[in-house]
Amino acid sequence: MSSPNSSQPSITNNTSQSSASSEQTSLSSMFIFDSIRRNDFEQVKLFIQQNPSLLLVCDENNNLPVHIACKCSHEKIALFLLDRISTQSSTQQLIEIIQKENNEKQSPITLANPKLRGMIKASIEISKMKKLLMEKYENKKQLVPTTIN
Q: What's the mean pLDDT in 40-62?
């Protein structure tokens, strides 16, 4: 999915990690998957705020947190995870994550119920628009002097 020179986020499989910080991430990843299954939005939000790399950690079945949220039809958590991913990734990377297959050849978009699938598609379009508006804002901001003497 990524090339050596790309700026794509890397997806981590928690079974191949080492070192003390990786052990903590591995432990946190177990807890985030459990929190998602229990539909504990506040706990998931806290985990992601403390360690954004958990967005892209995989479980033993190669599921990302968004896979589990979609599979369990936890719409609020799924949309939160996608929003956090979109702030760290390009739109193309977001789409690749949504289409990433687990060991059972299921992607988050295919695991989502029809209502959530529509929400995910809308979320991607909103992400595209946000990025476009931010680019336009940055371009215009450079044209306006910041201080007037």
A: 95
Looking at the predicted structure, is the pLDDT value of residue 6 above 50? no
Pairing of strands 57-58, 12-13: parallel
The three-state (H, E, C) secondary structure of 15-62, written as one string? HHCCCHHHHHHHHHHHHHHHHHHCCCHHHHHHHHHHCHHHHHEECCCC
Residues 100-131 have pLDDT tens digits of 999 999 999 999 999 999 999 998 898 889 88
Domains of the chain: 12-143 (1.25.40.20)
Angle, vertex CA 123, rays to CA 50 and CA 111, nearest 5:
85
